[in-house]
Design goal:
- This protein is α/β, with parallel strands linked by helices and about 350 residues long.
- It has three domains: about 110 residues, Rossmann fold (3-Layer(aba) Sandwich); about 70 residues; about 150 residues, 2-Layer Sandwich (Heat Shock Protein 90).
- About 50% of the residues lie in helices and about 20% in strands.
- It has eleven helices and twelve strands.
- The protein has a five-stranded parallel sheet, with helices on both faces.
- The two termini are about 45 Å apart.
């Protein structure tokens, strides 16, 4: 395992190297924070670092904070052992809060140093194994979902042709069964799309391909796509804005459409057939707020806590249960765009609300 030693004192740096090199670690050294950061930015960055708190240019605390953000972006983990002469608990707490995993007080006890580095090595190796297994599962889910789409589309098309009488007359009972089969295939296709979107979201923490997106335009486009569902369910949809003006955000347009599609589909399933589903747009200071509202049953308190958790399902209204992935994906999309999403019930209406910073 590659270990970075960062200390502006050449004597301390040599002592650290002599203590750890015989243990089989690949050692790289830095005499200041900027040098250390260059190692962290490498593709083959060290998995473990022993960093001195007091260094010129960039100190150990600042380095920890920057490293945690970099780790989050690259979906990896670096174990940090902070070395300090500050023995007071308030200093130790500050170091741990900044992102250090462990600390050592100077003067160093070399056997203790080796033992703590060994602990870090075990944690990094376990973390790497977990990341690799998760990646394999995500790849498998994405591959299966992608490979399923083509035959499902073909089956849906053939069922439609049979129902239209392309292969001969179809009586009413057979047409009913074929219609249900076609609906089930549509549900499977929707599930494949959701799993593929989740796999994509899991891989990308940064907004690739983001541009200026008008939320009202995306909402209207999504409403047109959902018109067959609205007609089938016998429900209406109304878009309401508080005033003329821009509802533009920096976003990935396809992800915004997926967000509206999931939230509106969910609202339509549980809506009261007498009252339309409403999309309410409001501008609040530098935020765009969007509320998807329906006059349906209130979601129970114990269910609310798991609404945006993977594989949770909304119960109620007699509607067909979902996969428990739609609302989880909505949360991922909103949070990736720097916003927040929540549920509330007021005046007989259920509302899913999200906010994004507007341009």
């Amino acid at each position: 395992m590659k270990v970075l030693l960062a200390d502006d004192d050449p004597v301390s740096l040599k002592v650290l190297k002599l203590a750890l090199e015989p243990e089989g670690y690949e050692i790289c050294s830095a005499s200041n924070g900027s040098e250390a950061w260059q190692y962290f930015e490498d593709v083959d960055a060290p998995g473990l670092a022993v960093i001195d708190w007091m260094m010129p240019d960039v100190d150990g605390i600042s380095l920890c904070r920057r490293l945690r953000e970099l780790d989050r972006q690259r979906s990896r983990y670096t174990y940090v052992l902070l070395v300090t002469a500050r023995a007071q608990s308030v200093d130790v707490v500050a170091g741990l809060q900044a992102g250090a995993d462990d600390y050592l007080i100077k003067p160093l006890n070399l056997p203790e140093l080796r033992a703590r580095v060994l602990v870090g090595r075990r944690i990094v190796e376990l973390q790497s194994e977990l990341i690799e297994r998760n990646q394999m599962l995500e790849d498998y889910n994405a591959a299966v979902s992608h490979d399923l789409k083509t035959p499902l589309i073909a089956v849906k098309m053939i069922l439609g042709q049979v129902m239209e009488g392309l292969y001969g007359p179809v009586d009413a009972p057979a047409e009913l069964v074929l219609g249900r089969a076609r609906e089930s295939v549509s549900d499977l296709l929707s599930m494949c799309e959701t799993i593929l979107a989740l796999a994509k979201a899991a891989r990308q923490d940064q907004l690739l391909g983001a541009s200026e997106v008008d939320l009202i335009s995306v909402a209207r486009d999504t409403a047109r796509d959902l018109r067959p569902l609205l007609e089938q369910e016998g429900k209406g949809l109304e878009i309401i804005t508080d005033e003329d003006g821009s509802y533009s955000v920096l976003a990935v347009q396809s992800e915004m459409k997926r967000l509206f599609l999931n939230l509106l589909d969910n609202a339509i399933k549980f809506a009261n057939p007498v009252k339309p589903v409403t999309l309410k747009f409001q501008r609040r200071e530098n935020l765009c707020r969007v509320a998807i509202e329906n006059r349906g049953p209130e979601i129970a308190e114990q269910v609310r806590r798991a609404l945006f958790v993977r594989f949770s399902e909304i119960a109620g209204g007699g509607a067909k249960p979902g996969t428990g992935l739609g609302l989880y994906l909505c949360r991922r999309i909103v949070e990736r765009h720097g916003g927040r999403i929540w549920y509330e019930y007021e005046g007989g209406a259920s509302r899913f609300i999200f906010e994004l910073e507007r341009l």
